[in-house]
Design brief:
The protein is α/β, with parallel strands linked by helices. It is about 30% helix and about 20% strand.
């Protein structure tokens, strides 16, 4: 549901805490109050657009895909909103998932509540976890509380409901979080899906537009039921103190696009990583991604934005600090923008990239160096003779070590890597070849070539 206006709004919000103007580091005593579930530290996350996931567009179709996703190394299933969609001022024929008509019901297009319970049970049976996309900032015009509790909403000078300010989201109306009853109502809805359906947490839509204090309270209440995992669609350090385990690494995502298009230097990766380490608590998870539902529908497919570097940046997002996200269809090398307000199912074809992601994600789950948050190994960039094009790094934790060598350029590169930390015997992730490196090695890397070694 991204628009240019929203991007500008979020850019303002992010800019307010940009390290170039705000050098304050997060207080350590704040981070101690947030306990991320142990099961989350070696996971990858997979976003499901239920409407487009299959021809049926149903909970059952997602359930049938779970064995494949489990085998691919997916640990967390993120479902886009499952609630009934508003009809008043609806966009397109089917409307936006983010126009919620009832927080306590499921969209009948997807199935019944019993079908959803079956899906959650099946996810857990596969030793996976499920989080729901949650729209706390606004509701559909015809959500019942607009009639029963009009005081829950912001209004203009004429007393009329309004869409969220600075957006073109005229299919939804803005809730008023200065009203304590709104907070109580929304937390009761959040509790409902954990208590009654045993879900494992939430992805919070436009989390920055809702007061952090609300999210802090919501997390505490949900954790009183069971340990949950929370993802913020935001890039705000204070979210991690008490409320959210993970946030979007938006800047890194946009940097991937810029490097692929020759607009930014490779050195920006180090700059952004260092700034993140200064701004965010050490236990914060940062979500790394090359696509998601907004990027795919509004800004282009991975092939439009990354060109021949699609797999290269997928490798980087899966091996760098943070948790990798896969948007449904990426494993099928999907090269189309999915319609947002209409039926437009994914063409699964031969699932061309399934093995590629399987190798990456299973390494993520099994290698301690790639653990999320402060449990994994910090990236150590290696010195090369072509640092303007080649990005090489290691991550190490206990006896586990991962070496990644990427050519982030469209040209063939002859490179020498000279670094004592390079030394070791490794297995190439994609070929199975065993290699032994000392403190130096000379390589010829093809355009956008990627190499992952591990032991």
């Amino acid at each position: 549901m991204k628009t240019l206006n929203l991007i500008l709004l979020l850019a303002f919000l992010f800019g307010a805490c940009n390290p170039s103007t705000d050098t304050q580091t997060p207080a350590t005593d704040s981070t101690e109050q947030l306990q991320t579930p142990d099961w989350a530290y070696n996971q990858t996350i997979y976003e499901v657009n239920i409407r487009q996931f299959s021809q049926e567009g149903s909970f059952e179709a997602v359930r049938e895909a779970l064995p494949r996703l489990k085998s691919m190394g997916v640990g967390i299933i993120w479902l886009m909103p499952i609630h009934p969609i508003g009809e008043v001022n609806r966009k397109g024929s089917l409307g936006s998932y983010y126009s919620v008509k009832d927080y306590f019901e499921v969209n009948p297009e997807f199935g019944t509540k019993d079908d959803f319970k079956s899906l959650v049970r099946a996810v857990h049976d596969h030793e996976m976890y499920l989080i729901l996309d949650w729209v706390a900032n606004h509701t559909a015009w015809d959500n019942p509380i607009a009639s029963t509790h009009p005081e829950y909403f912001e209004t203009n000078e004429e007393g009329n409901f309004i869409p969220p300010r600075g957006t073109d989201w005229d299919d939804v109306i803005q809730l008023d979080y200065s009203n304590p009853e709104v907070r109580d109502y929304m937390i009761s809805a959040l509790r409902y899906w954990v208590e009654e359906f045993d879900i494992d947490g939430y992805r919070a839509d436009v989390a920055d537009l809702v007061p952090t204090e609300f999210w802090d309270r919501a997390r505490a209440e949900l954790d009183s039921i069971k340990p949950v995992f929370m993802l913020a669609e935001a890039e705000t350090p204070e979210h991690h103190y008490k409320a959210f385990d993970m946030s979007y690494s938006w800047r890194m995502h946009h940097l991937f696009n810029s490097i692929a298009q020759g607009e930014e230097p490779v050195s920006k990766i180090d700059e952004y990583l260092q700034e993140d380490r200064q701004r965010f608590p050490s236990n914060a998870f940062r979500m790394q991604f090359t696509s998601n539902h907004d990027e795919n529908s509004w800004n282009g497919t991975v092939f439009e934005r990354l060109g021949d570097a699609v797999k290269t940046f997928a490798v980087l997002s899966a091996t760098m600090e943070g948790m990798p996200l896969l948007y449904n269809g990426q494993e099928a090398a999907m090269n189309k923008r999915l319609e947002f307000f209409e039926k437009d199912p994914i063409d699964w074809g031969d699932i061309d990239y399934n093995e590629f992601y399987t190798q990456l994600f299973n390494l993520k789950q099994s290698n301690q160096a790639l653990l999320n948050g402060d449990r994994g190994g910090q990236m150590q960039r290696l010195s090369t003779s072509a640092d303007e094009a080649v990005y090489a790094f290691i991550r190490q934790k206990n006896e586990d070590k991962v070496l990644v060598i990427l050519n982030l350029s469209p040209e063939q590169v002859s490179v020498r890597i000279s670094d004592a930390d390079l030394a070791g015997t490794y297995t190439h992730l994609f070929t199975g070849t065993e290699v032994t490196y000392t403190s130096g090695v000379e390589l010829i890397l093809e355009p956008w070539e990627y190499n992952v070694y591990h032991h």
